[in-house]
UniProtKB/TrEMBL annotation:
Species of provenance: Rotaria sordida
Residue stretches in coiled coil: 103-144
Name of the featured protein: B box-type domain-containing protein
Keywords (A to Z) from UniProt: Coiled coil
KW Coiled coil (keyword) present: yes
Amino acid sequence: MASSNRCSICGKRAGTCFCPGCKTYFCDDDFQSHRGILLNELDGLTIDRNDLQAKLNEAASNKQPSEHLLAQIDEWQRTTIEKVKQAAELARQQVFKIANSKREEITRQFQTLSQELKELRDTKGVVEQDLIRLKQEIHQLNEDLKPVAQSSTIELNMEQSDKIVWQHMIYVEEKSVSAGNQPRQPKPMGEHFNRICNESFE
């Protein structure tokens, strides 16, 4: 019988059994031992699989990481809404300030006009030019008051807020795992047994 068909373990008996995994011949006894090694390895993988399932179950029941992130999102929402409210309130105050400023200016002019009319009535020293001027002032005050009453002199500028891309203000992404943290891939089982078989010939 050709030496290549001798048992790869004992090297004495005929290699009547062939392993398609490691491409090696074995005698009956050594083939059973070889199969036992494979089955032991399989049992070890089954244990590893069960450990992995336990870890998966634990990860599924442990909501702490997601709860922490959700709490951060809630806090961001609260603070962002608060900032929006503050900006809106500031805009309201600006509206009142501008409107009141213009109204106060018209009020001062009105009071000056009223005082002058009273003095002219008291002194009866009015002339034609006074009447023309006062009439023009009253007309101008009426014209100045129209846009103030309608707030048409105030413009709301929302250009910057219109440019906000809200989905970019806050978003979630998965961290990339560095190569150093990646679990080392196990060598193929065939390579392991090929090495064992090759060592048996040395």
